[in-house]
Structure formats: C-alpha cells, structure tokens
Design brief:
This protein is mainly β and 450 residues long. The protein is built from 1 helix and 40 strands.
Length: 450
C-alpha cells in the first residue's frame, strides 16, 4: 500500500471481535494516519489470538497527528507482534488503551524481534491510558529482543505508561541525535512500577553527548544515574552495538558486538522435573504459534531447542514437542546460537562462505567467516566420495588458514565437501558445497569490439 490517504483511519485494521487472524508480510509506505491497527471497543469486542508479523511500515502520519506504524488500542489477549520493521513515520509500535477503551483489559501482548528506527515522535510505547485510575488495564506483556535506533532530533525511543507485570528485556536502544531527546520517558507519574522488570538492555548514545531518561518527573542524563534512582536496568550496559551497516538499515550484529551472548533468560523453571510440560515463573513470553506458525523454539537449561506446542498462562507452564529434563531455576529462553541470547532483534549467526574450484583430480578450496574465532578453534574438512591424497576427515587445520587443496581425487565424481569450525571436539558451525573434479574445461575466446 503506497501513499494512502485514509483520513484518520488505519490502512489495515482488525476492529472489534476479530479472533484467530493475522496481518503478515505487507508493505505500507506513506499514509495519512496509522499503518496497522488492532483495536477493541466495549461496543464491538476485542481482537484476540492475533499475529502481526513481517510487515514493513514507513512514512505514516501527517501534521498534527500521533500515528503509529502498528497500533494496539484496546486489544484483547494473546497478540504477537514480531519481526516487523517500522521507520520514518511518527510513532513506531504502540500498545495503549485510549479513553474509548479505558474499561477494557489488554493482556499477554508479546512485542519481539522488531526493528524500529527514526520515527519522529516515539519508537516504542507500551502502557495503558491517560491515567492509571481507569478501570481497564494492560498486564502480563513483554517487549523483548527489539532493536530501536534513532539518529534524528528530539524523539523518544521508549515511552512507558500504566501497566502491571510488564517486561522490557534484551533490547538495543541507540540514540545518536546530537540534540535533545530521550532513551526512556515515563509518561505518567501515577504508575506503579513495582511489578515491572526493565533490564539486560544495551544503550548507545552519541559520542560526547549525554543520554536522557525521564522518570517520575525528573530527567537523568546518564545510565548509571538512572540505575541508581530507578532501580531498573541494573544489569544493562552501554556500548556500541556494532551493527553491520546501520546507515543502510542493516541492524544485524557483527562478530565483535557487545550485544552478542549478553542477553538474559526470559524466565526460569519453578521446579525440577522431566517430560513435556514445564513449569515456569512467567509463561507470557511464549506462544504456540496461534495456529498460524510453529510455536516458539525454546531452550530449557542445557537441552537442545524444542518447540512450544501449548501454553497455560494462568497455570504458568509450557508444553513442548519432545521430552526434556530440567532442574529448578533452569533458564528458559528463545533458542540462540552462542553461549547466551543476543540482545536486539537479530541473533548473530556465524557462517562460512566457500569458493570451491574444480580441477583435474583436485578441488581448490577457499573460505571466509564472519566470526572471530577463539583460541583453540580449528577447521575440519570432510568430504564424501572416493578418497584422495588426504583421507577424510582432515582435522586440526589452524584457525587462520583459509585455503586448502584436495588432491588425487576421482574425476567426474560429485564430492560433498564440508568445512566446520571445531571447538572442544564439536562443530560450532559448518557449510557444505558440492563440486565435481574434471579434466575437461571449455574456454571461450575473448572478442573485443572497437
């Protein structure tokens, strides 16, 4: 949808008692108001079991408005907003209860793995209503593993409002603009934050400038000061997240990013046990896919990833697709690639690129990786097919080696060649290519036109 004049209405909206539905994979570029709306009202009912995924929204809003790219207003229960990109509009993602929805209850909203950047007013807002005394509420909701970035002036990265049992964890907040603005802004001084958890986030501000955190009517200019006053973000830290190319909107992490392996488990187990039903302290981080996709891939303790197939939110337990065993207080989090979850929307994924050139009874290999290999890591080359001079596997290749030639192979036989990074005897990532040695090559003549 491009250049949509919808007046004050959203371009796409679920309005009222819409259930078991999704808004996914849309591009909305330029609109006079809200991009995507999920709205409940007392006279119409509330949307529930909704997936909002993989949309890109930009250029939304017009003068005098406060239009969000994705707006949940009076929404119901069990709504997942994930992997969206919202940028260069007025507001990013907003979860709220406006006065018309002040008597409604919004519960179990998951805002995760979204990228929000350069929205001119607010990038992310979660909180209900204009006062904390209204009959409705926002509860048991989380904003986790999001990347929020601004390099324009006078905006707020995160706005907080009334709610209970709210969670902001494992996010990246970048505020690079040289003039005034806020990383955090608490909009309502009546809010009771005793049930909140705001922690394990990464902050970056413009070099030489101060960050701003507005909290209960006062402004704090540094993260340490804010921590001391608020008792929030106790384990959060400052640093350059080292995105691949933020200037060109590539917010994936480089291998040296301080956001790697720096996140916190979402929750922990409440008791030891084994089986497929796992008791957890807080279940509202997780989804069974809402009938639209597979459930969350989660890691419980040291187990390999398993898939969530059911969530009992009130009973505080998740059901997974295969049995595992766990101890009390074992971590439970989304599946990750390193030693701990990464902060931000994009989990770093080590990879190898391989160039394999067929030759007469030989294969010439070159490779490179985006990972900085630790001491003790080596390369291993394995291949399928008739053996050559070097029997497969070929272990113990120094981590700085990036070229290798397999010789005395059999021509016209397809070989699958796998290059793996090995640590403590186990592969940590690998890549396979298929190539056929040959002694027949065709060369085309070069023809130059004058």
């Amino acid at each position: 949808f491009f250049n949509m004049d919808t007046g004050n209405a959203p371009v796409i909206q679920f309005d009222g008692k819409v259930v078991d539905s999704k808004i996914a994979g849309n591009t909305l570029a330029g609109s006079t108001s809200i991009g995507i709306g999920v709205v409940g009202r007392p006279s119409k009912g509330q949307p529930g079991n909704i997936l909002v995924k993989g949309n890109e929204v930009s250029g939304h809003g017009s003068p005098g408005k406060h239009s969000a790219g994705i707006y949940l207003d009076g929404a119901g229960t069990n709504i997942v907003v994930e992997e969206n990109v919202v940028h260069d509009g007025q507001q990013g993602i907003k979860v709220d209860l406006e006065p018309e929805a002040a008597a409604l209850h919004t519960r179990r909203i998951i805002v995760r793995r979204n990228i929000l950047f350069n929205n001119s007013q607010i990038n992310l807002k979660m909180g209900a209503g204009e006062t904390c005394n209204q009959p409705g509420s926002l509860t048991e909701s989380a904003a986790v593993h999001n990347t929020i970035y601004s390099d324009i002036n006078n905006i707020t990265n995160v706005a907080f409002d009334c709610g209970e049992d709210l969670r902001w964890k494992n996010n990246i907040f970048v505020h690079k603009a040289p003039s005034d603005g806020f990383q955090y802004r608490l909009l309502n001084e009546q809010v009771n934050i005793s049930s909140w958890v705001v922690d394990y986030n990464l902050f970056m501000n413009q070099s030489g400038e101060v960050d701003h955190y507005k909290w209960f009517g006062r402004r704090y200019d540094t993260l340490p000061t804010f921590k001391n006053v608020s008792d929030q973000d106790r384990y959060s830290k400052e640093g350059n997240p080292q995105f691949e190319d933020a200037a060109n909107t590539d917010f994936s992490l480089t291998s040296a990013s301080p956001a790697r392996d720096a996140g916190d488990p979402l929750t922990v187990t409440r008791s030891a046990g084994d089986g497929t039903v796992i008791p957890v302290q807080e279940a509202w981080y997780f989804s069974d896919g809402l009938g639209w996709q597979a459930g969350d891939q989660v890691m419980v303790g040291d187990n390999a990833p398993v898939t969530v197939v059911g969530v009992d939110y009130d009973g505080r337990q998740i059901t997974v697709n295969q049995p595992v065993s766990w101890e009390m207080n074992d971590q439970v989090t989304y599946a990750y690639a390193g030693t701990a979850p990464d902060m931000g929307a994009i989990e770093f994924a080590p990879f190898i690129t391989i160039s394999a050139v067929p030759q007469d009874q030989a294969i010439s290999l070159r490779w490179q990786t985006n990972e900085v290999l630790a001491d003790g890591v080596t390369w291993r080359i394995e291949y399928t097919g008739p053996a050559g001079d070097q029997a497969s596997p070929i272990p113990g290749i120094h981590k700085n080696v990036t070229e290798y030639q397999l010789t005395a192979l059999t021509n016209y036989v397809i070989y699958d060649v796998t290059i793996s990074a090995i640590q403590d005897g186990l592969p940590i990532f690998a890549r396979t290519v298929r190539v056929m040695p040959t002694d027949k090559f065709a060369y085309l003549p070069l023809v130059q036109k004058r």
